[in-house]
Automatic annotation (TrEMBL):
<dbReference type="InterPro" id="IPR000277">
    <property type="entry name" value="Cys/Met-Metab_PyrdxlP-dep_enz"/>
</dbReference>
<dbReference type="GO" id="GO:0047804">
    <property type="term" value="F:cysteine-S-conjugate beta-lyase activity"/>
</dbReference>
<dbReference type="InterPro" id="IPR006233">
    <property type="entry name" value="Cys_b_lyase_bac"/>
</dbReference>
<feature type="modified residue" description="N6-(pyridoxal phosphate)lysine">
    <location>
        <position position="217"/>
    </location>
</feature>
<dbReference type="GO" id="GO:0030170">
    <property type="term" value="F:pyridoxal phosphate binding"/>
</dbReference>
<comment type="similarity">
    <text>Belongs to the trans-sulfuration enzymes family.</text>
</comment>
<dbReference type="InterPro" id="IPR015422">
    <property type="entry name" value="PyrdxlP-dep_Trfase_small"/>
</dbReference>
<dbReference type="InterPro" id="IPR015421">
    <property type="entry name" value="PyrdxlP-dep_Trfase_major"/>
</dbReference>
<dbReference type="GO" id="GO:0019346">
    <property type="term" value="P:transsulfuration"/>
</dbReference>
<dbReference type="Pfam" id="PF01053">
    <property type="entry name" value="Cys_Met_Meta_PP"/>
</dbReference>
<keyword id="KW-0663">Pyridoxal phosphate</keyword>
<keyword id="KW-0456">Lyase</keyword>
<dbReference type="InterPro" id="IPR015424">
    <property type="entry name" value="PyrdxlP-dep_Trfase"/>
</dbReference>
<dbReference type="GO" id="GO:0019450">
    <property type="term" value="P:L-cysteine catabolic process to pyruvate"/>
</dbReference>
<protein>
    <submittedName>
        <fullName>Cystathionine beta-lyase</fullName>
    </submittedName>
</protein>
Length: 402
Protein backbone atom coordinates (compact mmCIF):
# COMPACT_ATOMS: atom_id res chain seq x y z
CA UNK A 1 0.00 0.00 0.00
CA UNK A 2 1.34 3.43 -0.91
CA UNK A 3 1.68 6.07 1.75
CA UNK A 4 -0.95 8.13 -0.10
CA UNK A 5 -3.50 5.35 0.34
CA UNK A 6 -2.37 4.45 3.84
CA UNK A 7 -3.07 7.86 5.36
CA UNK A 8 -6.83 7.30 4.91
CA UNK A 9 -7.05 3.51 5.12
CA UNK A 10 -6.94 3.17 8.89
CA UNK A 11 -9.70 5.72 9.34
CA UNK A 12 -12.00 4.01 6.85
CA UNK A 13 -11.49 0.68 8.62
CA UNK A 14 -12.88 2.31 11.76
CA UNK A 15 -16.02 3.64 10.10
CA UNK A 16 -18.26 0.61 10.66
CA UNK A 17 -17.35 0.09 14.30
CA UNK A 18 -17.72 3.82 15.03
CA UNK A 19 -21.27 3.71 13.68
CA UNK A 20 -22.26 0.89 16.02
CA UNK A 21 -20.21 1.19 19.22
CA UNK A 22 -22.06 2.44 22.35
CA UNK A 23 -25.48 2.26 20.72
CA UNK A 24 -28.70 1.62 22.68
CA UNK A 25 -29.84 -2.02 22.65
CA UNK A 26 -32.73 -2.79 20.33
CA UNK A 27 -36.19 -3.22 21.87
CA UNK A 28 -39.43 -4.64 20.51
CA UNK A 29 -41.06 -1.22 20.68
CA UNK A 30 -38.30 0.55 18.75
CA UNK A 31 -35.13 2.38 19.75
CA UNK A 32 -33.58 5.74 18.95
CA UNK A 33 -30.22 5.27 17.23
CA UNK A 34 -28.54 7.76 19.61
CA UNK A 35 -28.09 7.32 23.32
CA UNK A 36 -30.13 9.72 25.45
CA UNK A 37 -28.36 12.56 27.25
CA UNK A 38 -28.68 11.99 30.99
CA UNK A 39 -27.83 14.83 33.37
CA UNK A 40 -27.80 14.54 37.12
CA UNK A 41 -25.94 14.82 40.39
CA UNK A 42 -27.87 12.75 42.95
CA UNK A 43 -28.64 9.09 42.37
CA UNK A 44 -31.36 7.69 44.64
CA UNK A 45 -31.66 4.04 45.63
CA UNK A 46 -34.57 1.85 46.78
CA UNK A 47 -32.75 0.90 49.99
CA UNK A 48 -29.62 1.65 51.99
CA UNK A 49 -28.31 -1.80 51.20
CA UNK A 50 -28.71 -1.16 47.46
CA UNK A 51 -26.84 2.14 47.81
CA UNK A 52 -23.99 0.47 49.72
CA UNK A 53 -23.73 -2.39 47.22
CA UNK A 54 -23.61 0.03 44.30
CA UNK A 55 -21.00 2.16 46.08
CA UNK A 56 -18.66 -0.83 46.14
CA UNK A 57 -18.77 -0.99 42.33
CA UNK A 58 -16.70 2.15 41.70
CA UNK A 59 -14.51 0.27 39.21
CA UNK A 60 -17.54 -0.58 37.09
CA UNK A 61 -19.67 1.58 34.84
CA UNK A 62 -22.50 2.17 37.29
CA UNK A 63 -24.22 5.33 38.50
CA UNK A 64 -23.18 6.09 42.09
CA UNK A 65 -23.05 9.89 42.20
CA UNK A 66 -22.82 12.50 39.46
CA UNK A 67 -19.24 13.44 40.34
CA UNK A 68 -18.20 9.83 39.66
CA UNK A 69 -19.63 9.77 36.16
CA UNK A 70 -22.95 9.73 34.35
CA UNK A 71 -24.49 6.99 32.18
CA UNK A 72 -23.48 9.07 29.16
CA UNK A 73 -19.88 9.21 30.37
CA UNK A 74 -19.85 5.48 31.00
CA UNK A 75 -20.92 4.74 27.44
CA UNK A 76 -18.24 7.03 26.08
CA UNK A 77 -15.67 5.27 28.27
CA UNK A 78 -16.65 1.92 26.81
CA UNK A 79 -16.38 3.30 23.28
CA UNK A 80 -12.93 4.84 23.83
CA UNK A 81 -11.60 1.66 25.46
CA UNK A 82 -12.82 -0.34 22.46
CA UNK A 83 -11.13 1.97 19.94
CA UNK A 84 -7.86 2.02 21.91
CA UNK A 85 -7.84 -1.74 22.45
CA UNK A 86 -7.84 -1.33 26.23
CA UNK A 87 -10.09 -2.64 28.97
CA UNK A 88 -11.04 0.50 30.91
CA UNK A 89 -11.18 4.24 30.28
CA UNK A 90 -11.56 7.22 32.59
CA UNK A 91 -13.07 10.31 30.98
CA UNK A 92 -11.80 13.58 32.46
CA UNK A 93 -12.49 17.27 31.95
CA UNK A 94 -9.76 18.07 29.40
CA UNK A 95 -6.86 16.69 27.40
CA UNK A 96 -4.44 18.28 29.85
CA UNK A 97 -6.25 16.58 32.74
CA UNK A 98 -5.79 13.31 30.87
CA UNK A 99 -2.03 13.97 30.94
CA UNK A 100 -1.79 15.15 34.54
CA UNK A 101 -4.19 12.76 36.30
CA UNK A 102 -2.15 9.58 35.67
CA UNK A 103 1.07 11.39 36.55
CA UNK A 104 -0.41 12.20 39.95
CA UNK A 105 -1.90 8.71 40.25
CA UNK A 106 1.32 6.79 39.63
CA UNK A 107 4.09 9.09 40.92
CA UNK A 108 5.08 10.10 44.45
CA UNK A 109 7.80 12.14 46.14
CA UNK A 110 11.23 10.67 45.42
CA UNK A 111 10.23 9.11 42.08
CA UNK A 112 11.78 10.02 38.75
CA UNK A 113 9.76 10.77 35.60
CA UNK A 114 11.50 10.72 32.21
CA UNK A 115 9.66 12.69 29.52
CA UNK A 116 10.13 13.07 25.78
CA UNK A 117 11.58 16.47 24.97
CA UNK A 118 8.77 17.10 22.45
CA UNK A 119 5.98 16.59 24.99
CA UNK A 120 2.90 18.85 24.94
CA UNK A 121 3.87 22.21 26.45
CA UNK A 122 1.28 22.28 29.27
CA UNK A 123 2.32 18.76 30.29
CA UNK A 124 5.91 19.96 30.52
CA UNK A 125 4.86 22.96 32.61
CA UNK A 126 2.94 20.67 34.96
CA UNK A 127 6.00 18.45 35.35
CA UNK A 128 8.35 21.39 35.91
CA UNK A 129 6.09 23.10 38.43
CA UNK A 130 3.60 20.81 40.16
CA UNK A 131 5.51 17.53 40.04
CA UNK A 132 8.81 19.08 41.06
CA UNK A 133 7.06 20.89 43.89
CA UNK A 134 5.71 17.54 45.06
CA UNK A 135 9.24 16.07 45.08
CA UNK A 136 9.25 14.21 41.78
CA UNK A 137 12.50 14.31 39.78
CA UNK A 138 12.09 15.34 36.13
CA UNK A 139 14.35 14.86 33.12
CA UNK A 140 13.95 14.64 29.34
CA UNK A 141 15.08 12.39 26.52
CA UNK A 142 15.59 13.34 22.85
CA UNK A 143 12.57 12.05 20.91
CA UNK A 144 14.82 10.31 18.35
CA UNK A 145 17.21 8.80 20.90
CA UNK A 146 18.20 5.18 20.44
CA UNK A 147 17.87 2.39 23.02
CA UNK A 148 21.34 2.95 24.46
CA UNK A 149 20.69 6.66 25.03
CA UNK A 150 17.30 6.01 26.66
CA UNK A 151 18.74 3.28 28.88
CA UNK A 152 21.49 5.63 30.05
CA UNK A 153 18.85 8.10 31.25
CA UNK A 154 16.93 5.59 33.34
CA UNK A 155 17.47 5.80 37.10
CA UNK A 156 16.82 3.32 39.92
CA UNK A 157 13.83 5.46 40.94
CA UNK A 158 12.37 5.95 37.43
CA UNK A 159 8.71 5.05 37.70
CA UNK A 160 7.21 6.63 34.57
CA UNK A 161 8.45 7.22 31.03
CA UNK A 162 6.11 9.70 29.36
CA UNK A 163 6.17 10.13 25.60
CA UNK A 164 4.17 11.76 22.84
CA UNK A 165 4.45 10.28 19.36
CA UNK A 166 4.37 12.11 17.09
CA UNK A 167 4.89 15.37 18.93
CA UNK A 168 2.16 17.89 18.17
CA UNK A 169 4.62 20.66 17.27
CA UNK A 170 7.72 18.95 15.89
CA UNK A 171 6.20 15.61 14.79
CA UNK A 172 8.95 13.16 15.66
CA UNK A 173 7.59 9.61 15.54
CA UNK A 174 9.14 7.34 18.15
CA UNK A 175 9.83 3.64 18.52
CA UNK A 176 7.17 3.11 21.18
CA UNK A 177 7.78 -0.63 21.48
CA UNK A 178 11.45 0.05 22.24
CA UNK A 179 10.53 2.61 24.88
CA UNK A 180 8.12 0.13 26.45
CA UNK A 181 10.78 -2.59 26.62
CA UNK A 182 13.25 -0.26 28.33
CA UNK A 183 10.67 1.13 30.74
CA UNK A 184 9.47 -2.32 31.77
CA UNK A 185 13.01 -3.68 32.13
CA UNK A 186 13.65 -0.91 34.67
CA UNK A 187 10.36 -1.35 36.54
CA UNK A 188 8.72 1.74 35.05
CA UNK A 189 5.42 2.36 33.27
CA UNK A 190 5.17 3.81 29.76
CA UNK A 191 2.63 6.62 29.28
CA UNK A 192 1.77 7.70 25.74
CA UNK A 193 -0.03 10.85 24.70
CA UNK A 194 -1.79 9.18 21.76
CA UNK A 195 -3.87 12.15 20.68
CA UNK A 196 -2.44 12.36 17.12
CA UNK A 197 -2.55 8.58 16.76
CA UNK A 198 -5.95 7.94 18.33
CA UNK A 199 -7.70 5.36 16.15
CA UNK A 200 -4.66 4.70 13.93
CA UNK A 201 -2.07 3.55 16.49
CA UNK A 202 -2.77 0.60 18.78
CA UNK A 203 -0.97 1.57 22.01
CA UNK A 204 -1.36 -1.64 23.99
CA UNK A 205 -0.08 -3.81 21.13
CA UNK A 206 3.14 -1.82 21.37
CA UNK A 207 3.61 -2.15 25.13
CA UNK A 208 2.03 1.08 26.38
CA UNK A 209 0.66 0.95 29.93
CA UNK A 210 -1.39 4.16 29.99
CA UNK A 211 -2.75 5.76 26.81
CA UNK A 212 -3.87 9.40 26.87
CA UNK A 213 -6.18 11.18 24.47
CA UNK A 214 -7.48 14.73 24.10
CA UNK A 215 -11.05 13.98 23.03
CA UNK A 216 -11.28 17.66 22.12
CA UNK A 217 -9.44 16.84 18.90
CA UNK A 218 -10.50 14.00 16.55
CA UNK A 219 -13.35 12.34 18.49
CA UNK A 220 -15.43 15.45 19.22
CA UNK A 221 -14.30 16.94 15.95
CA UNK A 222 -16.32 20.16 15.92
CA UNK A 223 -14.25 22.52 18.12
CA UNK A 224 -16.99 22.78 20.74
CA UNK A 225 -15.88 20.27 23.40
CA UNK A 226 -13.11 20.14 26.01
CA UNK A 227 -12.58 16.59 27.30
CA UNK A 228 -9.91 13.94 27.75
CA UNK A 229 -9.56 10.21 28.23
CA UNK A 230 -7.12 7.87 29.97
CA UNK A 231 -7.15 4.21 28.93
CA UNK A 232 -5.47 1.16 30.44
CA UNK A 233 -5.45 -2.57 29.76
CA UNK A 234 -4.58 -3.87 33.22
CA UNK A 235 -6.91 -4.29 36.20
CA UNK A 236 -4.38 -3.16 38.82
CA UNK A 237 -3.56 -0.01 36.83
CA UNK A 238 -7.27 0.64 36.36
CA UNK A 239 -7.96 0.49 40.09
CA UNK A 240 -5.13 2.93 40.83
CA UNK A 241 -6.22 5.29 38.07
CA UNK A 242 -9.91 5.13 38.95
CA UNK A 243 -9.28 5.72 42.66
CA UNK A 244 -7.08 8.74 41.91
CA UNK A 245 -9.61 10.17 39.47
CA UNK A 246 -12.42 9.91 42.00
CA UNK A 247 -10.27 11.38 44.75
CA UNK A 248 -9.36 14.36 42.55
CA UNK A 249 -12.92 14.84 41.34
CA UNK A 250 -11.93 14.26 37.73
CA UNK A 251 -15.08 13.89 35.68
CA UNK A 252 -16.50 15.22 32.42
CA UNK A 253 -19.94 16.76 32.05
CA UNK A 254 -22.62 14.64 30.38
CA UNK A 255 -23.14 17.22 27.63
CA UNK A 256 -19.46 17.04 26.63
CA UNK A 257 -19.60 13.24 26.70
CA UNK A 258 -22.74 13.17 24.54
CA UNK A 259 -21.24 15.57 22.00
CA UNK A 260 -18.08 13.47 21.86
CA UNK A 261 -20.11 10.31 21.26
CA UNK A 262 -21.87 12.11 18.42
CA UNK A 263 -18.54 13.22 16.97
CA UNK A 264 -17.17 9.69 17.13
CA UNK A 265 -19.82 8.50 14.65
CA UNK A 266 -18.24 10.50 11.84
CA UNK A 267 -14.61 10.49 12.96
CA UNK A 268 -13.58 7.78 10.51
CA UNK A 269 -14.87 9.47 7.38
CA UNK A 270 -13.91 12.96 8.58
CA UNK A 271 -10.33 12.02 9.25
CA UNK A 272 -10.02 9.90 6.11
CA UNK A 273 -10.72 13.04 4.09
CA UNK A 274 -8.69 15.35 6.30
CA UNK A 275 -5.70 13.00 6.26
CA UNK A 276 -5.82 12.77 2.48
CA UNK A 277 -6.04 16.55 2.12
CA UNK A 278 -3.26 17.10 4.67
CA UNK A 279 -0.83 14.87 2.77
CA UNK A 280 -1.75 16.56 -0.53
CA UNK A 281 -1.04 19.99 0.96
CA UNK A 282 2.14 18.79 2.68
CA UNK A 283 3.50 17.47 -0.61
CA UNK A 284 2.63 20.71 -2.36
CA UNK A 285 4.46 22.68 0.30
CA UNK A 286 7.55 20.55 -0.27
CA UNK A 287 7.76 21.98 -3.80
CA UNK A 288 7.61 25.62 -2.72
CA UNK A 289 10.88 27.60 -2.81
CA UNK A 290 10.10 29.37 0.47
CA UNK A 291 9.86 26.10 2.42
CA UNK A 292 12.88 24.42 3.97
CA UNK A 293 11.17 21.36 5.43
CA UNK A 294 7.75 19.78 5.91
CA UNK A 295 7.26 17.69 9.06
CA UNK A 296 4.51 15.21 8.23
CA UNK A 297 4.95 11.67 9.61
CA UNK A 298 3.93 10.14 6.25
CA UNK A 299 6.80 11.92 4.47
CA UNK A 300 10.26 10.31 4.47
CA UNK A 301 11.94 13.53 5.63
CA UNK A 302 10.00 13.56 8.91
CA UNK A 303 12.01 12.24 11.88
CA UNK A 304 10.82 8.72 12.70
CA UNK A 305 8.96 8.20 9.40
CA UNK A 306 10.08 4.55 9.46
CA UNK A 307 8.16 3.99 12.70
CA UNK A 308 5.06 5.67 11.29
CA UNK A 309 5.23 3.35 8.29
CA UNK A 310 5.72 0.32 10.54
CA UNK A 311 3.26 1.04 13.36
CA UNK A 312 0.45 3.32 12.14
CA UNK A 313 -2.55 2.45 9.99
CA UNK A 314 -3.16 6.05 8.93
CA UNK A 315 -2.14 9.67 9.43
CA UNK A 316 -3.61 12.69 11.14
CA UNK A 317 -4.65 16.14 9.97
CA UNK A 318 -1.84 18.07 11.70
CA UNK A 319 1.71 18.67 10.45
CA UNK A 320 4.53 21.21 10.62
CA UNK A 321 6.25 23.53 8.13
CA UNK A 322 9.69 25.11 8.45
CA UNK A 323 10.48 28.13 6.27
CA UNK A 324 13.92 28.87 4.92
CA UNK A 325 16.28 30.77 7.18
CA UNK A 326 16.15 33.73 4.77
CA UNK A 327 12.86 34.73 6.40
CA UNK A 328 12.30 36.22 9.84
CA UNK A 329 9.62 35.47 12.36
CA UNK A 330 8.07 38.83 11.49
CA UNK A 331 7.95 37.79 7.83
CA UNK A 332 6.13 34.60 8.80
CA UNK A 333 3.69 36.55 10.92
CA UNK A 334 2.81 38.77 7.93
CA UNK A 335 2.27 35.65 5.84
CA UNK A 336 -0.03 34.13 8.46
CA UNK A 337 -2.04 37.34 8.75
CA UNK A 338 -2.54 37.32 4.96
CA UNK A 339 -4.28 33.93 4.94
CA UNK A 340 -8.05 33.90 4.47
CA UNK A 341 -9.10 30.28 5.00
CA UNK A 342 -6.94 29.32 7.99
CA UNK A 343 -8.04 30.39 11.41
CA UNK A 344 -5.25 31.49 13.74
CA UNK A 345 -5.73 29.51 16.92
CA UNK A 346 -4.75 26.67 19.19
CA UNK A 347 -6.13 23.14 19.18
CA UNK A 348 -6.63 20.94 16.13
CA UNK A 349 -8.57 17.92 14.87
CA UNK A 350 -11.76 19.85 14.16
CA UNK A 351 -13.54 20.29 10.85
CA UNK A 352 -11.86 23.64 10.10
CA UNK A 353 -8.32 24.49 9.03
CA UNK A 354 -6.01 26.32 11.43
CA UNK A 355 -2.51 27.74 11.48
CA UNK A 356 -0.32 28.39 14.52
CA UNK A 357 3.30 29.65 14.76
CA UNK A 358 5.57 27.19 16.54
CA UNK A 359 8.78 29.22 16.56
CA UNK A 360 9.14 30.91 19.92
CA UNK A 361 6.39 28.87 21.56
CA UNK A 362 8.24 25.64 22.28
CA UNK A 363 10.51 24.77 25.20
CA UNK A 364 13.16 22.15 24.46
CA UNK A 365 16.15 20.87 26.38
CA UNK A 366 17.89 19.71 23.21
CA UNK A 367 17.79 20.24 19.47
CA UNK A 368 14.54 20.63 17.55
CA UNK A 369 13.80 19.89 13.88
CA UNK A 370 12.28 23.38 13.51
CA UNK A 371 15.47 25.31 14.29
CA UNK A 372 16.41 26.06 10.66
CA UNK A 373 13.93 28.89 10.13
CA UNK A 374 10.56 30.26 11.24
CA UNK A 375 8.05 27.45 11.67
CA UNK A 376 4.32 26.93 11.92
CA UNK A 377 1.90 24.04 12.04
CA UNK A 378 -1.19 23.44 9.93
CA UNK A 379 -4.40 21.70 10.93
CA UNK A 380 -6.20 20.68 7.75
CA UNK A 381 -9.98 20.60 7.91
CA UNK A 382 -12.75 19.60 5.54
CA UNK A 383 -12.40 22.49 3.11
CA UNK A 384 -11.53 21.80 -0.51
CA UNK A 385 -7.76 21.17 -0.49
CA UNK A 386 -7.35 23.14 -3.74
CA UNK A 387 -8.82 26.19 -2.01
CA UNK A 388 -6.49 25.69 0.96
CA UNK A 389 -3.48 25.41 -1.37
CA UNK A 390 -4.51 28.56 -3.24
CA UNK A 391 -4.71 30.44 0.05
CA UNK A 392 -1.27 29.24 1.12
CA UNK A 393 0.09 30.22 -2.27
CA UNK A 394 -1.07 33.79 -1.93
CA UNK A 395 0.24 33.83 1.64
CA UNK A 396 3.69 32.68 0.54
CA UNK A 397 3.77 35.49 -2.01
CA UNK A 398 3.82 37.88 0.94
CA UNK A 399 7.20 36.39 1.83
CA UNK A 400 8.65 36.78 -1.67
CA UNK A 401 7.30 40.31 -2.16
CA UNK A 402 8.55 41.77 1.12
Amino acid sequence: MTDENKVSAGWLKLASSLSHVARPPATETGTYVNLPLERGSTVVFPSLEAMQQTGRKRYEHVSIYGAMGSPTQHELEKAIATIEGGTDTQIVCSGLAACTTPLLAFLKAGDHCLLADNVYGPTRRFAENMLKRFGVEISYFPPCADAAAITALMRPNTRVVFTESPGSHTFEVQDVAMLADIAHTHGALLFLDNTWGFGIFAPFKHGVDVSIQALTKYPAGHSDVIAGAITVADTHLWHTLRDASVQMGQVAGPDECWLTLRGLRTMGVRLAQQAKSALQIAKWLQTQPEVARVLHPALPECPGHTYWKRDFTGAGSLFGVVLKADYTVQDMQRMIDALKMYGIGASWGGYESLILPTTGGITRSGESPIQAGPAFRLQIGLENPDDLIADLQQGLRVLTNI
